[in-house]
User: What shape does this take?
Amino acid sequence: MNDFVEVRTVLGKKKISKNTVTLSHEHICCYSEYLNIMSKSYLDKAELAKKSADILKNMKEKYGVELFIDCTPVNIGRDVELLKKVSELSGVDIVCSSGFYYNDEPILDCMSAETLAEFIVGDANNTCAGIIKAAVEYDTVSPFNIKFLKASAIAQNKTGLPIILHTNANNKNGVKAVEILLSENVEPKNIVVGHLSDTNDIEYIKNFTKSGCYVALDRMYDNKTEEYITSKINQINELCEAGYADKLLLSHDDAVFQGFCDKTQIKEPRWSYMFEHIVPKLDDNIANKILKENPLTMLCGMEDYYGIQRTNT
Ligand SMILES: [Zn+2]
Assistant: This one.
């Protein structure tokens, strides 16, 4: 079995060691380009690149993080040139996203799913994106959301890239979103259902693993109470005992510049949390799967990871 797997990074396709630790759902920055146009003091990108690179260098030294999946979709400030700079300065490989967030936007509202899919495919090719981001937030999955999910599905079928879904676990809208993707011929192994650590409803999470999707417990908060830590460990162990260790992803969903608040600034994200408080309490094999193996099988497919000959190409 090969020790490396090919991953699409912002610096092109790269051979990545299977021993690599990955942060599977984070952001360097989420921001509004409009605000950047309106105010020069809103975001200093040179400062952000330097600070982000310093943080990633530290993550590499301390926890062995060598691959970082940036889940920022295009319309909340994805900036590939910034990500390239951070990757070059830090020596950490970065996977970027194509695709759109859930916001209803007038210009995009006028376009068909097919047209939007063409944008995603073209963008994924131009940027060497490794994932397609799609999103639902509210309890009603709107016609706009459905069109975007269809666009993501069409683009997935054309590119083969996995879809990482932003969902709201508390209103359980992931069920409808996955249903739409499946109806558009996306295979479950190419779907990651995100933000499921926001619920303690284990049966809800198991719905997705049962159908073969990846489940992302990717919102580890900076909560050091025994109660919170134990609830997350129990969640992971229960899913593993049910036979879904191959489908679990763990991360924080935090950013160096987190634009989703009234006033924001460049800050230290909580990316150390899971390495300090969750991982040491997991069985080594499980930790290995979650940190090293699963992010790579998610990005490249089990077939490529295990060197199994593809039959469909
Ligand atoms: Zn996110």
Remarks:
- The two ends are 20 Å apart (CA to CA).
